[in-house]
Specification:
Two copies of one chain form a homodimer. The first copy, chain A, is 72% helix and 0% strand. Chain A has 208 residues and is mainly α. Chain A binds a DNA duplex (30 and 30 nucleotides) through helix 1 and helix 3.
Chain lengths: 208, 208
DNA sequence: CTACTTGTTGCAGTGACTGCAAGTTGCGTA
DNA sequence: TACGCAACTTGCAGTCACTGCAACAAGTAG
């Protein structure tokens, strides 16, 4: 149970962060024990030591407590993509940006693993995570189309490329979870990008 | 408003099919008018001329009335994949199966387009659709891993390949919707597969 | 026409989620 | 240190998604 450092924060900020963390921990533990549908928001709140109403001050949905979203993060990644040199091939630009920024740095890896394990077992949560990934996917596709000067709403090439890249991200997270975190996420992510870059046709033929 | 042929069906079967169709049509129209969150299950039922309770006899969730799932379909596609010759490269096998079986044949294309347009505008529905696609994705990844004799729960290669293939499917549907159905879905789908097969790296460099 | 099966409906109940109107608590200021 | 503002927590009442159950209606097979 690692508590990451956060200096220069007020008492208020610390309390909020603690409550938020307590809620996601409670949610993760309860869902691991009983399964997502059997866990009520009320129970999560009580285990975390706050009122049921407060739960919804922190998370808009039960799913949010487990998946966790961060609009800033999307903006950060898209900005990084925009700052890449225009001459760089899109796949390389995406790779550079995502390998650096996709692995969360502000979360304890052990807890992230716990949450991923729960996620993998609960279809409902997986769908919710897909929604979050799709936010990023759309934003990236838009940025990429603009970069190439094509109408973002009708650019199947960019859409496909970005979707494949996000697939690399998703599968890397899952594979990382499969190794129980023993192999660093960055390396797995890099390997998935290698597979993509080498061309799926070629890779698919080999038996690994 | 095309009503497809269905012969040899009993009165019961016809009524059920009609009610189901009325419900999805009502749902599509209402959501197009007011947006998904503003539409209640009750209103959908009333517009379709059935009681609110009956709505939930047909669909487990509000989303289902718009996205529509079909477990048989997943099984059908996976079976088709299993019947492919083992020597065939995975990407080609997937392509052959999906180009033939992914475009729905039992739905009026105009209504499908309506639903896709609504889908594209509503994040919540998009997420639900992602869940449905993920069902298929998981099943295909499993079949592919088994075919190659690898543990299905830890085969990032297969997971990535299938995810990319499903991305081709998803983006093809969206691009088809973007052309208002003027270009046949099969052709767009085939083109997305061409992009995949040619290797993303190469394609991404070109400017279309 | 009768017995059986299948589908519809209303009702009551649970739980997710929201807006509102109090309280509490941290924090800058006099 | 006491005051007042702003932010956070809480309870309450309400809406809506969704479910199980039991009565009822309608199609079906003999």
């Amino acid at each position: 149970m690692v508590v990451l450092e956060h200096d220069g924060e007020s008492v208020r900020e610390r309390k909020k962060r603690e409550t938020r963390l307590a809620l996601t921990r409670a949610a993760t533990a309860l869902v691991a024990e009983r399964g997502f549908p059997a866990v009520t928001a009320e129970r999560i709140a009580l285990r975390a030591g706050v009122s049921p109403r407060t739960f919804f001050n922190y998370f808009a949905t039960k799913e949010d407590a487990l998946v966790g979203h961060d609009p800033q993060r999307v903006a950060q990644i898209v900005d990084a993509l925009r700052r890449r040199p225009p001459s760089e091939p899109p796949l390389e630009a995406l790779r550079a940006v995502l390998v650096e920024l996709l692995p969360p740095s502000d979360v304890d890896p052990a807890e992230l693993l716990d949450r991923l394990r729960v996620l993998r077992a609960e279809p409902q949560l997986l769908a919710y995570q897909a929604l979050r990934f799709e936010d990023l996917e759309r934003a990236l596709a838009r940025a990429l189309s603009e970069r190439r000067g094509i109408d973002p709403d009708n650019d199947p090439h960019a859409a496909l490329l970005v979707a494949c890249v996000m697939a690399a991200g998703r599968t890397a997270f899952m594979a990382w979870c499969g190794t129980d975190g023993r192999e660093p996420l960055e390396r797995i992510l890099a390997r998935q990008f290698d597979v993509l870059a080498a061309g799926l046709a070629a890779t698919a033929r080999s038996t690994t």
